[in-house]
Amino acid sequence: IVARIATIAISPLLAMISFWPLHCTSSARTRASVTVPIPDLAVDVDPARDHIRVPEDAPVTLVAYVSFGCRHCVVASLAIRQLLERSGERLRYVVRHLPLTDADPDAELAAEAMEAAGAQGAFWPMHDALIRPVGPGTLGTVYRVARRLGLDLDRLFADLDRHIYAERVASDVRSADASGVSGTPALFIDGRRWSGPIELEALSDALTVQLGASAGEPAALDSGRT
């Protein structure tokens, strides 16, 4: 019921707002950024490492760098979920971490919690619970979700206490840096940076074009670059 209410409350925004270049940024990352050409995805998707929302053999891949507490990630995730429902078996979705702790101090905790849950086969349920307007009390949210999913709570919180997955998150951050990403959400469609509006119809059109390209048609993805 809560998820349904959140979707109803936010979904009108999907048709009204373009979220690029509006995105969440860390002040430290913003200060370090310079004006350079937009690069493509620097680190290819690795099924042995990346979190992939099935089907793994879909012809088009969407990679998203996200951060807990980023309000634009919340809205983008709703658009992407609708896109996945619409696309059927044609699109695989990959999430990578870019925790912006300046924007939300719990962003790193949330990223590590997703990985800890993933070690118990529950990355996506934890992701879906945290990439939404949950308000304060991230640790409590992690506890409630993990308990509902029947996860080993002692193991999960021991992993968090020892920061077992901090390096895993850091490796995503390094890949974001290599790809020129300084804010979230940041999307790549088949390795090319998407700088158009992050909303359902625009992404659906891009998917259609890219499916044609992957099938050998002459059209190429318009990523919104200039």
Architecture overview:
The protein has 226 residues and is of the alpha+beta class. Helices cover 46% and strands 12% of the residues. It has 9 helices and 7 strands, in the order H-E-H-E-E-H-E-H-H-H-H-H-E-E-E-H. The protein has a 5-stranded mixed beta sheet with strand order 2-4-3-6-7. Strands 1-5 form a two-stranded antiparallel sheet. Helix 3 links the parallel strand 3 and strand 4. Helix 1 crosses helix 3 and helix 4 packs parallel to helix 6. It is globular. The chain starts with a helix and ends in a 12-residue tail after the last helix. The N terminus and C terminus are likely disordered.
Largest sheet: 5 strands, mixed
Fraction of residues in helix: 40-55%
Could you tell me how far the N terminus lies from the C terminus, measured between alpha carbons in angstroms? 42 Å
Mean pLDDT: 84
Structural class: alpha+beta
- How are strands sequenced across the largest beta sheet? 2-4-3-6-7
- In terms of DSSP E residues, the strand content is 5-15%
Radius of gyration over all CA atoms, rounded: 17 Å
Tell me the overall shape: globular
Oligomer: single chain
Question: What is the strand tally?
Answer: 7
How many helix segments? 9
Listing every helix as H and every strand as E from the N terminus to the C terminus, the arrangement reads HEHEEHEHHHHHEEEH
Give the low-confidence spans: 1-21, 31-35, 218-226
